[in-house]
Request: fold
Amino acid sequence: MSATVDHRTKFPHLRQDFAASLVVFLVALPLCVGVAVASGVPAELGLITGIVGGLVTGMMRGSSFQVSGPAAGLTVLVFEAVQEFGLPALGVIVLASGLLQLAMGAFRLGSWFRAISVSVVEGMLAGIGLVIIAGQLYAAAGMTAPASGLGKISGLPRALVDAAGSSTALASLALGAGTIAVMLVWKRLPRPVRSVPAALAAVALATLASLAFAMPVDTVEVQGLAGSIQLPGLKAIGGLADVSVLGTVLAFTLIASAESLFSAAAVDRLHDGPRTEYDKELIAQGTGNVVSGFLGALPMTAVIVRSSANVQAGARTKASRVLHGVWLLLFAALLPFALALIPIPALAGVLVHAGWKLIPLRSTVTLWRAHRGEALILVVTAVAIVAVNMFEGVLIGLALSVAKTAWQASHIRLEVTDKGAGPIEACLTGNATFLRLPKILDNLEALPQDRPIRLDLSGLHHLDHACGTALENWSARHSAAGTEPVKVTELPLERATSG
Reply:
C-alpha cells in the first residue's frame, strides 16, 4: 500500500499523461512518415526526428505541452536542400541550425520572434501550404513533381490530363482522395470513433484497401532505423563554407524558430498551465536540432497539430510528450515492416489535408476588410514563396512589413490657418521623415509667396536630417521672395535628430 501511495505521490498525473502520449503518438506517426517522404528522404528519418523531439526536446524546459517533430511547414525547404546539396549535407545543415538556435536562446533572442508580423508568418504558411498541396497531388497520382513551386502549380492541368489516361494513376489518385475524404468525415463520426486520430485512421484504411484490392500503388521504402542514420562527414561539414549552404542554414533557423515560437503562443491559449519561457524553448528546439542533425535526420519544430492534440487529450505534464517519443522508438525498432505496407498516395492525402489547413482563408478575408495593407503582405509573401523560393519569399514579406511600418510611422499632417489678414499659420504634426518629404514640400510650396508665414514644428514627434534641411531651404526661398522671413517655432531638442 505504501508503495502505491508513494508512486502516486511521485507521479500524480501519470494516468492522464500516459493516455495523452498514446493519442499524440497516433497523431505523430503518419505525419512523421508523410513529412519524410514528401521531403525526399527515407521515412525512418522522420521517425528519428519525432523520437528526438520526444526524448530530448520533450525533457527540456520551455513549454510544458508543446510536442516537437518534423513539420509539414519545412518539407519544401528540406526537399530543395536535399536536391541541391544531397542527403549527406542535410544533417550538417540541421546541426548548424540547431547551434544557431542555441546561440539565439543563450542571447535571449527568443522573444524577438514574437515581433515578426503575423501577416508574414501566415503568408509563409499559406505559401508552404500551396506548394505542399501542388507537390503532393503529383505524388498522389504516382508522378514526379516539378522542382519549382511555380512549376508544380502550372504543370497540374497537364498532369491531370495524363493521369486521366492511366488506370494506375487513377487508382492511385482514388486512394489519395479517399484518404482525404476519411479525414474530412472523421470529425463528424461518434465520439468513441473519433478517439482514434483521423490521420491514422485514414492511412490505416487506405493501407487495408490497397492490400484487399491489390491496388498498383507505390508504398513506403524501408531501410531500417539504424541503416538510415548518417553521421556528419568531413566533406559535408566542409560544405558549410558554401554561401548557398549557409543561406539554407539561416532559412532553416529562422523558419523553424518562428514556427516553434508562434506555435508556443497558440498552445498557451489552449491551457491554463505554465506559460512558455521563449528563450528556454528556443534552447530546447536547438538542442533537438543538434541531435537530429548529428543523426542525419530532418529539422525539428514544435508542431501545433500534435501540441493541440496533447492538450486536448488531457496531458498534465511534459511526461506525455516524452512517452510519445518512447512509443515512436518502439514502433520504429519493433515494427519497421509495417511502414512498407503504407501506400504513398495515402501519405500524400494526409499532407494535402495538412497543407490546406496551413492556408488561412477565413482570416485573410477578415484581414482584408480591416487592414488591407496587412492582407496584401500576406498574399504577396505566399505568392513570392510559390514563385521564387521559401527563403527569399519570407525576406520579401519581411521587407514589405518593415516598409509598411516605416510608411505608417512617417505619417504627417499640415494644418493651414489663414484669417485673411496677417501671417498664415502652418502647423506640422506627426513624424517628418524623408519618406514624406515630397508631400511636405508640395504642401508648403503651395502656400502664397506674397504672405508672411509662421511655421509651427512643435507638434512633430520626430524630424529627421533630410526634412530639417529641406525646411530650412524652403524657408530661405520663401523669404527671398521679398516677404517677411518665415518664423519657425522650433521642434523641442529632445525630439529632434541630426541623423
